[in-house]
Specification:
RNA Polymerase Alpha Subunit, Chain A, domain 2, 2 domains, elongated, seven-stranded mixed beta sheet
Amino acid sequence: MKRRTLWSGDLWLKAFAFILAVMMWFFATYKGQSEMVLEVPIEFKNTPKGYIILKQTINKVNIHVSGHERLLKALRPFNARVIVDLTKAKKGENEFYFSRSDVVISNAIKVIRIDPIVVKFVLDELGTKEVPVRVPVIGIPESGYKISAIEVLPKTIQIEGARSEINDIALLKTETVDVTGLDKDLQQVVKINTGGKNILVKEGEIIVRISIRKVQR
């Protein structure tokens, strides 16, 4: 009986020491821990060759993270991103559900949740097309003068984008040129107005030459 009592007391001390050690580890580990929400960009990779993303429902997501308060205070949106792997994507509408493994961030920080959890996007074939360029002109030249010619160089440009989108483009306009009060020729470098369409213009710059002539009386 006496031996059993001593053994039981020793076991109790060991159990108490173990519990105390666990509590100390827990305190040391989680002291200074905090949580925050960070808005980070979505990055698409492995887009199938010959395809392009026509549109997508979101560009950024909120990631809920936890970690040491010191690390979280130094965390910025450019320190993290969410990867969307398009290896299995197909032409048309697609859905990609995020998981914590899709988040690229420091290993010292834990990802708790991603919001929203899904991005929807449309994948279309990539195409090219040659289209003419037109220059919108506003204003009136100086009294006694008129526009005799408008020249655009180059006259046509090559565009690249989603095939379903560029098929509907018959021409592209440049930014507007104002001829108000002109009494001599004008040469100006202008930009192409894509009208908000997701297309790539091959030519770097467009030159507009407007000839002004005196009205013969």
